Amino acid sequence: MFGYIIRKVFGTRNERYLKGKLPLVTAINKLEPEMQALADADFPKRIMEYKERIAKGESLEKLLPEVFALTREASVRALNMRHFDVQLIGGIVLNSGRIAEMRTGEGKTLVATLPVVLNALSGKGVHVITVNDYLAKRDAEWMGKLYNFLGLSVGVVVHGLTDAERQQAYGSDITYGTNNEFGFDYLRDNMKFYPEQLVQRELNFAIVDEVDSILIDEARTPLIISGAADQSTEKYNQIDTIIPRLKDKEHYTIDEKAKSAALTDEGVAFVEELLNVENLFDAQNITLQHHVLQALKAHKVFKRDVDYIVQNGEVVIIDEFRGRAMEGRRFSDGLHQALEAKEHVKVEAENQTLASITFQNYFRMYKKLSGMTGTADTEAVEFQQIYGLEVVSIPTHRPMTRKDMPDVIYRSKSEKFDAIVKQIQILHEKGQPVLVGTISIENSEKLSDLLKKKNIPHNILNAKHHAQEAEIVAEAGQKGKVTIATNMAGRGTDIRLGEGVLELGGLFILGTERHESRRIDNQLRGRSGRQGDPGESRFFLSLEDDLMRIFGSERIMGIMESLGLKDGESIEHRLISRAIENAQKRVEAHNFEIRKSLLDYDTVMNQQREVIYALRRQTMVGDDLDGMVHEFADDALGLLYADFPTHMEKASPEEKERCRQALAEAINFQRVWHREELPSKDEAMAIVTEILEELKKDAAESYNSVVRYFILEELDRSWKEHLFNMDHLRDGIGLRGYGQRDPRQEYKREGFELFQALIGRIRENVIKLLTRVRIRFEEQEQQKEEVLEQESSPSLYNSLFKHSEPSQSVSYSSPQTVENDMSSTHKNKANQKPLKRNEPKLGRNDDCPCGSGKKYKKCCGKDK
């Protein structure tokens, strides 16, 4: 009650915020005559003046009225579009690092130009992130006319660009692209070896278009770069043959809410009999058990033309929120392979994670983040908790006149589809355009078949027919048009009403099923009623719909039975609408928990990722790596000597020998230490320094490149192994709950222990490598080639020198080879020293000239 009184007296928080921005709008409008008086050539000059003022320390907020006014006038001249006052408010909201909720058709694309231009003045780059490549290219070209008029450069990042093209795009003042491209470029940059190969700049300011789709819907799927693992795929096909023999309820159960499947006790016994194993849950059968459960899930939970399609001999994932094919993306943990076996297409090799990040953690790295969408209010709590983003609802330019009618509910799907076809037929004969929304390809094609039988012409838009998406959606408002669309529904493309349609009631939105998220339903409704246009919307439901069947049908069925409804009759009642909304809220809460859980686990990984990536970047761009190497050596030796006896002179011969071997393995100390007793820790550090000085002298100008290579190579190899270990830890961490321990806390604790071990291992291995590396100078190219041919593993040479890219700044003019003579990888090169130019040019397999009868490399050559 108290809160109600406060809102009545002072208005809502949203209303108070908007009221507080009105003076800014007034200030911008007062500057309009001044901007109208400028010549076209003056606009880039003004931008340069603003850039200089920013460089001198003036704040963006102080410049906001002038820049917004200049941008609005530039838009009038370049695009023939003038920002409304409510669009100015939207721009102010975006610049403040908030989410602007604006209705469909209110011109979000134009609104974004205001904060984009303002923030581009800093010279640090602005990213505008869209949901697909088409919109990225369209908006970059469309709004690029405005930016170019102001003298600002525009780039676009889409699939298929080279690194050079990406560097140019990211180097522009303003860069358009998709969330996937930005995220994967970040991961790829952290796998590069040279600064010249990096494509992204520092993450400065981003505006996320359709922010709910990107930061909420897609946040359940992390970005993963992976490589093929060395495992056979034959097991998937073998297991696939037994799944059809399992019987529902008797051998397995399905949890549709959790989208999972499990074997019953009878099912376990039956599978053990089929596979001829004694205990499926024995530790030695853990992989077999995993294959069985994933195959069961592929057959009984995941549906073709709903969760995925088969296209050109490949299983392609369907985005559950937009109905869009996600080419190049694969289900993890062997599920994709199980689906390939189910559909009898080629089973690709399993992948091992090389780099990964969630969208939540990627977008939280931007210094300033904002977003815009037509539907954000239902997820306002999540935006605030996860991203620290407040949602501000922007009023419409004209009043909303669309009629949203109550849902109609039928007993069965067949009754529902009959009613839908009748409704479409009535609307088509009337001439009123209708956009039909479905939640799956299967339903869209079923409805299409029914309309064909009635000879009703229509367009169908789904993941199988998406090539002409924008054109189909743009024409959906023409008189008599019938358009069937999955949830993609052409987001970002306006549906303009054709001649005579206003009088017929505008665009009719017909939903064939409620989505599990209210926001997705609101997006569909939002396709109609733009800029004050008339429109109508209605959802047709049945008790057999997935949402109703899983989450709310029992109560609703009771209501319908009490009313004595007959076959073919429908019901409209606020109690049922409320029950449906409650079901959707439960699903939304469940999905929020999934995303929050994913974030909790990835936050552990993110802290580790930041440390590793920061170390990588420091190594990559550092001109002098000696400090880092000596720090590594000090830490490695500290751990090593902590395990040695306090008084070495009192240690047993066996203990001394153990210490000697450990130290020899760690720093190859015998290379320069010729005394019987072991060196102290300080003396060991001096030995490392001496060896590195020798390496620096031999490598000359290539020293930093050699050190950089070994550090980066070890970082990447160890990080890949760590990701593998963390994946396995997470897979089994849920079992800790049976021991009354919080799995998330256990994951944090054990993950931290694994990470500490990782850091120690990286430092030890880098020092181990660098104290064994040799630089060999050859006088003739022919001799260098002979040495390379005889090397057991020439990959280090090839990686470091032979395959260096033209853009690299380090030049290797002297013919050199880099060797790693660690006993574990190159046993023949232990204690080898670089050949001097005046020494005999003897090959590795030549007879030793001393007359011993041994090969040179194992005799005198060994000591050299």
TrEMBL record:
GO terms for biological process: intracellular protein transmembrane transport; protein import; protein targeting; protein transport by the Sec complex. CDD domains: DEXDc_SecA, SF2_C_secA. It is found in: Cell membrane; Cytoplasm. Residues 854-864 have a biased composition (Basic residues). It is an enzyme of class 7 (translocase). GO terms for molecular function: ATP binding; metal ion binding; protein-exporting ATPase activity. ATP binds at residues 87, 105-109, 494. One of its GO terms (cellular component) is plasma membrane. Residues 798-864 are annotated as: Disordered. Residues 836-847 have a biased composition (Basic and acidic residues). Belongs to the SecA family. Monomer and homodimer. Part of the essential Sec protein translocation apparatus which comprises SecA, SecYEG and auxiliary proteins SecDF. Other proteins may also be involved. This is Protein translocase subunit SecA. The gene is secA.
